[in-house]
Structure prediction request, 585 residues.
Amino acid sequence: MAKTSDLDVAYVARLARINLTEAEAKVFQKQLDGVLQYVEKLHQADISDVEAAAHALPSFNVFREDAQREWFTADQALSNAPRKANGLFIVPKVVE
Amino acid sequence: MTKQDLPALNIADLQGLLRRREVSPREVIEALRARIEMVDGEIGAYLSLDIDAAAKEADKANVDLPLGGVPVAIKDIINVMGQLCSCASKILQGYRAAYDATVIRKLRAAGAIPFGKTNLDEFAMGSSTENSAVKLTRNPWDLSRVPGGSSGGSAAAVAADEAFGALGSDTGGSIRQPAALSGIVGFKPTYGRVSRFGLVAFASSLDQVGPLTKTVHDAALLMNAIAGDDSQDTTALNEPVPDYAATLGNDLHGVRLGLPKEYLVEGIDAQVKAAINAAVKQMNSLGAEIVEISLPATEYAIAVYYILATAEASANLARFDGVRYGYRAENPRDVLDLYGRTREEGFGPEVKRRIILGTYVLSSGYYDAYYLRAQKVRELIRRDFVNAFEKVDAIISPTSPVPAFKLGERVADPLQMYLADIFTIAANLAGICGISLPCGFAEVDGHRLPIGLQLLGKALDEARILQIAHAYEQSTDWHKARPPIAAAP
Prediction:
């Protein structure tokens, strides 16, 4: 089947740190090509006099007093850890 | 009234019984437990339920508070301290919330009891609840059909009298659409009206928590409890919160209702169209003036949404990496293997698809063509609504172009599923408020399937939208109809 978009699902999945089987990548490629084809319609919209909107409503910086608050204890922060020891998250070695 | 009839009550009536001490909060929990045991095997609305915790809270409940002793079901994407919060994803199986979301803290302050966690599309991504990694939820009006989504568990629980009311979240229609398909009321507040702190983030510029209830009055009661500013959410609006329930009761004289000429076109089910036309006529007879309006940019709403929502999701869901909480793949070789396999094994297909699409539209070389352009078209959509609300007080449309569809009918075609949200998505992009309420039934294959009417209002105009919805609701009997499962022995 002819490719209808620039999307390379296998490559983008690696960027997103999601392993995919070949079969899964193939199905997603077809489905997402369809979605990308659909969103092409945005090129018909006249956006020449428009600023990009990150939010629908005006948003402002919100400040609070820089003071100590009650918050998670280390135990609470670790309470859902898949692996932990001595008050630390255990992960595979990341430096040689 | 016998104890086993209690679950059929709405919140306002239950509150009356509790306050007059005709029933105790513990008896209410007991009645709900019995009801759930009776019907939830068929409906599948709940993912987890801690009856003992609820019963303990019931014993301490102060029934003189605004929602004293009233159990409220919670979509399983909102953190309730000590309870499971799975987001219907394998990646959060076994996760227990270490804190209360702000909406939960506020519900408790109003005397309510968070009761049970309801099913959803995984991470709220979907329109049928079929993307739940845990189980299916069935529509109480026809068990072969979807309840809508993503707050399908909340909607089905309320419709099947397994809950008096529930909280959901609405990113592109996830409260209003399941409310419509399940025959109940669903309310999406203005972006920022309700705190998002403790709601697991999907698309942070679109997500909003809101109520699913049996009546408009009940939606107002829950809004009274959960609305307002929050120091934990910088996007929560620092604006006074009116008493939404106290302002109900006006008629529709002087109300201008906008009918978008783009909305009643092709693709709408004939019975849905007829029900909406009848509702418009009814509201006109109640005194409302009907004005034709135009929302030309809304034809781009779905395209904009599936760029912006997936982009935001790809960033928000980066936190699920198998390090600090949730699922972790076994025996990772190294850290990249840990990330890649944890996310492969932990996320379902729709979540993966959306993360990949979102990563793509944000990636170097494609950002301007997709993400930036979508943000600009979002501004066009917002302007359409600003212009429309200079002429009208509310915009009227179907909530969903079709009644509840069959389980399995749309799962293989994501785009077809996305089109189910055609009438609801623009409100999230524009940040405005909206409600869905029952306005009739479609007869399909011998089943009565509910039809929902959507009313959209401008930012922070919740009180008026609830008033208009209430006036219409009180002039009809649609909200009194109960699904067949309600009469089950």
In short: The first strand of chain A starts at residue 84 and ends at 85. The two ends of chain A are 44 Å apart (CA to CA). Chain A has a mean pLDDT of 89.
